[in-house]
Design brief:
By secondary structure, the chain is an alpha+beta fold. The chain has 8 helices and 6 strands, in the order E-H-E-E-H-E-H-H-H-H-H-E-E-H.
Length: 233
């Protein structure tokens, strides 16, 4: 059963009902924005007519639960989440068909000046169906480009290691199209209430900030998955 709650149907998500004993929830906050976002995001990205976010999604398209991760490639907390938390979530929820995971660009360029350049490279990689490979290498090797004055060459070299064709990548970057797409996406994300990275929309609720271990999000996803599948039985 495909989830029908998207970014335009955001509501409250209470952490209290997901806590077993107290866990390190660190910077997690639950917010309830009231701005329409989901359909606007989808319509702004000309990838595939039937599923415009497909190139930045993983997991079963008809999974009962959809998570939208809103992130910044230069964000240290996003890297920590990708390296330390996401592998467990991917194994337990994405690979098992329980969750569809979608990446949304939210580069915080006022504090991360190279985030936009990285987002552009990742978006161009997505047009070659190499988004997740590029996503991973940009995060795992963030230290190699995050503090550079001119990061483009290093970012391109990393994307090539992820299997991206250089000639097509250069043409895509030079066109400027992806920058416009990233900027539009980020503006809509901010208007929806997301002002920290990483943030996660999970079936109507907004979680801002990420735990340092998988357990808090495991409990949230387990509870929502159980509720949704039980309701559709």
């Amino acid at each position: 059963m495909r989830s029908h709650r998207h970014l335009d149907q955001i509501g409250p998500l209470s952490l209290a009902r997901f806590r077993s004993p107290p866990a390190p929830l660190a910077r997690i906050a639950i917010l309830v924005p009231a701005i329409w976002l989901g359909a606007a995001l989808a319509s702004s990205i000309p990838q595939q007519a039937d599923d415009p976010l497909a190139s930045r999604s993983k997991g079963a398209r008809n999974a009962p639960v959809t998570v939208y991760e809103m992130a910044d490639f230069q964000c240290p907390a996003c890297r920590t989440f990708t390296v330390n938390v996401m592998p467990a979530l991917d194994k337990q929820f994405v690979q098992t068909g329980k969750v569809r995971w979608v990446f949304i660009n939210l580069p915080l360029i006022s504090i991360h000046p190279n985030a936009m350049a990285a987002a552009e490279v990742a978006m161009c990689a997505s047009r070659q169906k190499r988004f997740w490979e590029t996503h991973d290498v940009l995060y795992f090797r963030q230290a190699e480009w995050a503090k550079l004055t001119e990061p483009r060459a290093t970012l391109m070299a990393l994307a090539q290691r992820a299997g991206v064709d250089r000639k097509k990548l250069v043409a895509c970057l030079d066109s400027g199209t992806v920058r416009t797409e990233v900027e539009q996406e980020a503006r809509r994300a901010v208007r929806s209430g997301a002002n920290a990275t990483p943030s996660f929309y999970i079936e109507g609720g907004l979680v801002q900030g990420a735990p340092s271990t998988p357990e808090p999000l495991v409990r949230i996803l387990d509870s929502i998955y159980t509720t949704r599948t039980r309701a559709n039985q």
